[in-house]
Design brief:
Radius of gyration: 20 Å
Number of strands: 13
Number of helices: 14
Strand order of the largest sheet: 3-2-1-4-5-6-7
Largest sheet: 7 strands, parallel
Order of helices and strands: EHEHEHEHEEEHEHEHEHEHEHEHHHH
CATH topology of the largest domain: Rossmann fold
C-alpha cells in the first residue's frame, strides 16, 4: 500500500495580521486532502478563534508556530513532512532557505514582492502577476496570475455555471466584510460612506469585535437605509451570492468575489493591497471605492462611487460578469498538480 503523503502549511494569522493567509492556505489544503494527502497547519491560529475553528473544523491538526530556521528543520523531521507550504509575510528569508536546503520540497505563496522566499515553487495568484518579472531563487519555478487562485470548497460550490445576469431586486442588498478581524477598522467608515449616498439599501456588515459593532451602530442612517451587524461567519460565500453589492478589502478575498460573480466594491485598507486594488479596478472587474485613509478623511468620493453602484443595476451586472470571466476556480488544482509532481520527483 502506498504511503500517505504529509504536507505542512506554515502560515501567518493574528488579530493584526488577519486571516487571509489562513483562508487561502485552507483552500489549498482542501485540494491536497481531496487527493489523499494528510495536512498539518503550523501557525498561531488560537489567537483568532474563528480562524482556529475553520482549520480544526475540517479535521486538520494544528502545531504551534515556530520561528527560527533550525526550529523549522526540526519540525519537518519530527512531523515526517514530504513538503512544506509557506504563506507568510512574517518569517525571515533564512527560514525558507533552510527548509529548502534540507531537501524537502517547498512551495511559497507570495504577493508580488518575494520577501526573501526561497522555495522550489513560488505561487503569486494576483491579477497581472504573470507579467511581472521578479528575480527568482536558483532553480525555482513561478506560477503566476489568476489561473492559480486558491479558492475554498464553499466558494467553488456556489460559483455560477453561467455568467451573472441582470437582476432588479428593489432595495439593493449590500454585504460588507473586511477579513476575519477587520484589523484596520474599515467597517464603520464604509457604513458612513454608504449612509452618505442618501439612497436606500439593506446592508449586512461583518464586525469582529464590540468596538466595531458600537462604531457601526452609531452611524446615522436615513429612513430607508438599514444596517445589520453580524460576527465572523462561515457562510460568507452564501452571503456574497445573495447580495447585489459586496464591499470588501482588496486582499485575497477579491478573487473569491470575482469567482462568485459578485459585484465587488473594493477598499484599499493597507499599502500592500494597492497594486491588487489598482489592477482589479483597471480591468473593469471591480469598482474602486477608495483607500481607507481617504474614507476616514472624507466619505464624499466613496459615497459617489457607492451611490452609482446602488442605483445602476446594469453597471453592477457588467462588473459581475467581467469578474466571473477572470477566475475559473481551478487554480488550486493546477498548483496541487505542480507540488505533487515536485514531491514525486524528490522521492
Amino acid at each position: 500500500m502506498d504511503r500517505v503523503l504529509r504536507v505542512g502549511v506554515r502560515c501567518d494569522v493574528g488579530v493584526r495580521r488577519g486571516v487571509g493567509h489562513v483562508m487561502r492556505s485552507l483552500a489549498f489544503a482542501e485540494e491536497l486532502r481531496r487527493r489523499g494527502v494528510e495536512v498539518v497547519f503550523v501557525c498561531d491560529s488560537p489567537t483568532v478563534p474563528w480562524a482556529d475553528a475553520q482549520i480544526r473544523g475540517r479535521g486538520i491538526a494544528v502545531e504551534a508556530a515556530v520561528w527560527t530556521p533550525d526550529e523549522h528543520v526540526r519540525l519537518v523531521e519530527r512531523l515526517g513532512l514530504d513538503a512544506v507550504v509557506f504563506d507568510s509575510y512574517d518569517l525571515p528569508g533564512e527560514v525558507f532557505g533552510a527548509v529548502r536546503r534540507s531537501g524537502v520540497p517547498t512551495l511559497a505563496i507570495v504577493d508580488g514582492d518575494l520577501r526573501g522566499a526561497d522555495a522550489d515553487l513560488l505561487v503569486d495568484q494576483n491579477l497581472g502577476a504573470e507579467f511581472d518579472q521578479p528575480v527568482l531563487p536558483a532553480g525555482a519555478v513561478r506560477l503566476a496570475g489568476l489561473d492559480y487562485v486558491l479558492l475554498r470548497d464553499d466558494v467553488l460550490a456556489l460559483r455560477p455555471s453561467d455568467p451573472p445576469v441582470l437582476r432588479q431586486s428593489g432595495v439593493p442588498k449590500v454585504f460588507a466584510f473586511f477579513g476575519g478581524t477587520d484589523a484596520y477598522g474599515a467597517g464603520p467608515y464604509v457604513v458612513r460612506a454608504l449612509a452618505a449616498t442618501g439612497v436606500p439599501f439593506e446592508a449586512t456588515v461583518v464586525a469582529p469585535g464590540e468596538q466595531l459593532v458600537e462604531a457601526i451602530s452609531a452611524v446615522p442612517l436615513e429612513a430607508e437605509q438599514r444596517v445589520q451587524v453580524i460576527g465572523p461567519t462561515s457562510q460568507l460565500a452564501q452571503a456574497v451570492v445573495e447580495s447585489d453589492l459586496v464591499v470588501s478589502a482588496s486582499g485575497t478575498s477579491t478573487w473569491e468575489l470575482l469567482c462568485l460573480g459578485a459585484t465587488a466594491g473594493l477598499v484599499c485598507v493597507v499599502d500592500n493591497q494597492e497594486m491588487g486594488y489598482e489592477r482589479a479596478v483597471a480591468t473593469g472587474a471591480a469598482a474602486g471605492v477608495g483607500t481607507l485613509a481617504a474614507l476616514k478623511a472624507d466619505p464624499t468620493e466613496a459615497a459617489a462611487v457607492l451611490r452609482s453602484l446602488l442605483t445602476d443595476a446594469p453597471r453592477r451586472t457588467q462588473l459581475a460578469q467581467a469578474g466571473w470571466k477572470l477566475v475559473d476556480g481551478q487554480g488550486r488544482v493546477r498548483v496541487a498538480d505542480a507540488l505533487l509532481q515536485l514531491i514525486d520527483a524528490a522521492t
